[in-house]
Write a structure and sequence with these properties.
Blueprint: E1 12-16, H1 20-31, E2 35-40, E3 52-55, E4 68-71, H2 76-89, E5 92-95, E6 108-112, E7 115-119, H3 126-139, H4 144-160, H5 171-179
Parallel strand pairs: 1-2, 1-4, 2-3, 4-5
Antiparallel strand pairs: 6-7
């Protein structure tokens, strides 16, 4: 596994199902700015107005044009078809509750502005990932969002002045900023 952070803004994502687990994935995708389509026979969790909702069962060919697919139908036979279609089309797939058939996993996320902490158990124990995320969150300074924004501004100023920031050791500056009193963002 290689943890990566993807910019999903405007990327076409298909979610099959609209139950509790699908609902949590849809919320994360919506917050990430994805262009979401939901195909489901029954809506059990709210679907954002920004998503396209199609009320019917999955049909072969539904994955066409999507870059990412989440199958949360809970129906093995449907998942078999979705897995085969995703593989044939080269589409990244997450089959909820079946890590062996996933190309990627959702992580337990803590976000503080532009600072994101993400914990994964490679799909083996989502509750453990959430537990570890909460431990990490409780150990973090309260002003990381402000620190990240200040560092972005300082780096941008240097870049604007033609100075490369690649060889700079930022640790001392980070320590300085973290030690400052937290401010409201």
């Amino acid at each position: 596994m290689l943890p990566l952070a993807f910019n999903l803004t405007g990327k076409r994502v298909l979610v099959l199902g609209a139950g509790r687990v699908a609902g949590s994935k849809i919320s994360l995708l919506d917050a990430a700015g994805a262009d979401i389509t939901v195909i489901t026979t029954e809506v059990l969790e709210p679907v954002p107005d920004s998503a396209t909702l199609i009320l019917r069962p999955y049909q072969p060919g539904d994955l066409e044009g999507f870059q990412l697919v989440i199958s949360a139908t809970g129906v093995g036979a449907v998942n078999d078809l979705v897995v085969a279609e995703a593989k044939a089309r080269g589409i990244w797939l997450n089959v909820v509750d079946d890590p062996s058939r996933c190309d990627f996993y959702f992580t337990a996320v803590h976000r503080d502005g532009p600072v994101i902490v993400s914990v994964s158990t490679e799909g083996s124990a989502p509750a453990l990932a959430q537990y570890v995320r909460d431990l990490v969150r409780s150990a973090l300074p309260e002003n990381l969002s402000a620190v990240a924004r200040r560092l972005r501004s300082e780096r941008d100023s240097m870049h604007d002045g033609g100075i490369s920031t690649e060889s700079i050791s930022w640790r001392a500056r980070i320590d300085e900023l973290v030690a400052e009193e937290p401010t409201t963002d």
